[in-house]
Specification:
The complex is a heterodimer. Chain A is built from eleven helices and 14 strands. Chain A is an alpha/beta fold. Chain A has two domains: 214 residues, 3-Layer(aba) Sandwich (Rossmann fold), CATH 3.40.50; 60 residues, 2-Layer Sandwich (Alpha-Beta Plaits). Chain A has a six-stranded mixed beta sheet, sandwiched between helices. In chain A, helix 3 packs across helix 4. The longest helix of chain A is centred in the middle third of the chain and has 16 residues. Chain B is mostly helical. The longest helix of chain B is centred in the first third of the chain and has 32 residues. Classes of the chains: A alpha/beta, B mainly alpha. At the A-B interface, helix 2 and helix 3 of A face helix 2 and helix 5 of B.
Chain lengths: 303, 267
């Protein structure tokens, strides 16, 4: 079976700005694949090329083994997109938003009606079916947007930052539904800048920055191979500690207040430094995606 | 835009554009109260002000060699302005709101519709709205007995053509303006002068020759000419010329509108 998405040397330029810089990736059927990266990394630009809303500048991009330049309509017939911004129709009710969208896919009215009911029930929105969009909270709107993206029973679901701006309860509800879809075998492409989201939802992911893919793989593997099992985090430490860490050849990062030592044996490192270098605090914890992310993309502030 | 570009744009328009027309129609029905009111109320206000007010001073005007009651003269003119306003404001302000504030088009182009489909749907809807506005206004005007049927019925299909022209003009500006307030410029530079100087409120014969020529170059003059003759129950004298003028200009204007919108939206 050919991959769902196959990109080779995929490039997007806006004038002199290169938003996506010759990236390669392959997404297989049934996996939840993540694009993790800071703002401006090129995640949304990549996604827009996949759903054929933005022409590719160079390289190759095939979706369902079809060329995005040649068969955008056939590709779009089989994908569902939940965009970052709210694009719901404010003049329509919750239910009407789905049936009108179904019409764009050529779904007969009756079938669209039934499908809307299923989706609204699945997303916990059936009770609000007659509500107007402006009466909905941010979380409900996002769930409706996801329901709308499923109206054509897509073979590929694209979620562009599905939980940005949502409160914790709403985020968990969205995650819960995404997990259900994943269990049902739906191929999902997800962009996010939340580590926990990527870690909890994605089978595989890439970390993107400045239009390039820095690493690719299952999140747990990436953390283990690139960071280590554990992190010793020290704050309020004497300058001599940094020299010592360097001497030992440990992998580490530091800013003005904190020091992170990446290791497979956190306890040993902790024992070795805690007494000799008195600090305000020192702790050992499991390494996570955030450690990898910050290690790869640096700690400077982004726009 | 080259001819090849124009051909490519037109080839990207499919019958799916009707789905956008349907979407806009559905919104029109949802918000019907605010939509029906203006075209019904507007002519009554105008007929009172111009008919009873100005008409008290100017009982009759000379139009194409005969004397015509002033109120009867302006009634078809009002219909022409209605087509222009409805279609132009639909594809300017309303399209801009859908494009920029509601992000409606961003959502639709992720479905099998092309951007060209979406824009063609907007243009068709703009033309339709011109026709709906005209038909509603005809109801109000007919209550004063100012239209002659059955000829006047032809005003409705004709208003689709006039509507398409002004919808295309509007979409061109929507492709160009930096923000929604900028529509003030085309409105006051093109639309308001046409509203006043297209043989709508006075016969063009009273103007000096050069001004008449200028007025004859305006699209609304041709819309008003046809509507007035039909409204008077006659076959318009220069029908072929008026239709040709509108058709020949409406088509490239519509294609240009789609082109400018595509340039604006597809990055």
């Amino acid at each position: 079976m050919p991959p769902v998405i196959e990109a080779h040397g995929l490039t997007k330029r806006y004038g002199s700005l290169t938003a996506v810089d010759a990236v390669d990736f392959t997404i297989d059927a049934g996996e939840c694949y993540g694009f993790l990266g800071p703002n401006g990394a090129g995640k949304t630009s990549t996604v827009k090329m996949i759903h054929c809303s933005s022409p590719i500048t160079a390289g190759d991009l095939r979706v369902f083994d079809l060329d995005v330049r040649e068969q955008p309509r056939s590709i779009k017939q089989r994908i569902g997109v939940c965009q970052q911004e709210d694009t719901l129709d404010p003049d329509f009710s919750v239910r009407k938003n789905l049936t009108v969208f179904g019409r764009y896919f050529g779904i007969p009215a009756r079938q669209a009606g039934e499908r809307s009911r299923e989706l609204l029930e699945f997303m916990g929105l059936w009770e609000r079916r007659d509500a107007r969009i402006r009466e909905l909270s941010g979380g409900l709107k996002r769930r409706l947007a996801i329901a709308r993206a499923l109206v054509n029973e897509p073979d590929l679901l694209i979620l562009d930052e599905p939980t940005t701006g949502l409160d914790p309860q709403s985020r968990h509800q969205v995650w819960d539904r995404v997990r259900t879809l994943r269990r049902q075998g739906k191929t999902i492409l997800l962009t996010t800048h939340y580590m926990d989201e990527a870690q909890t939802l994605c089978d595989r992911l890439v970390i993107m920055d400045h239009g390039r893919i820095l690493v690719e793989g299952p999140p747990a593997d990436l953390v283990r191979t690139r960071v280590g099992r554990e992190v010793v985090e020290v704050w309020g430490f004497p300058p001599a500690l940094v020299a010592h860490v360097r001497e030992q050849g440990w992998s580490f990062e530091a800013d003005t207040h904190r020091l992170w030592i990446y290791t497979d044996s956190g306890e040993d490192v902790f024992e070795a430094i805690a007494r000799r270098f008195p600090s305000e605090g020192c702790t050992v914890r499991m390494a996570g995606l955030e450690d990898l992310f910050l290690k790869l993309t640096g700690r400077e502030l982004r726009e | 835009m080259s001819v090849a570009d124009a051909v490519a744009l037109v080839r990207n328009v499919s019958p799916r554009s009707l789905r956008v027309w349907e979407r806009n129609r559905d919104v029109y029905f949802v918000t019907w109260k605010t939509n029906l009111f203006p075209p019904l109320a507007e002519p009554i206000l105008y007929l009172m002000a111009f008919g009873a007010g100005v008409g008290a001073l100017v009982k009759q005007v000379q139009y194409r060699g005969e004397m015509v009651g002033y109120t009867a003269f302006i009634a078809p003119g009002l219909l022409a302005t209605q087509v222009m306003f409805q279609a132009f404001f639909e594809t300017t302000y309303n399209t801009f709101v859908r494009m920029h504030y509601q992000r409606t088009f961003d959502a639709i182009i992720t479905t099998p519709l092309s951007l060209e489909d979406v824009m063609a749907g907007e243009l068709l809807w703009g033309a339709t709205k011109g026709a709906i506005g005209t038909a509603l206004m005809m109801l109000a005007i007919s209550a004063f007995g100012l239209l002659h049927y059955p000829h006047a019925l032809l005003i409705v299909p004709f208003s689709l053509l006039g509507g398409l022209f002004f919808a295309g003009l509007g979409l061109c500006f929507t492709g160009l303006v930096p923000q929604i307030d900028s529509f003030n410029f085309p409105t006051f530079l093109f639309i308001m002068p046409m509203f006043l100087f297209s043989g709508t409120f006075f016969p063009l014969e009273v103007l000096p020759r050069w001004a008449q020529n200028l007025a004859n170059a305006l699209p609304l003059t041709h819309v008003a000419n046809v509507m007035r003759e039909l409204g008077f129950g006659r076959v318009p004298r220069d029908l072929v010329w008026d239709l040709l003028y509108l058709l020949v200009l409406a088509l490239p204007l519509n294609v240009l509108g789609i082109h400018l919108m595509k340039r604006r939206l597809v990055k």
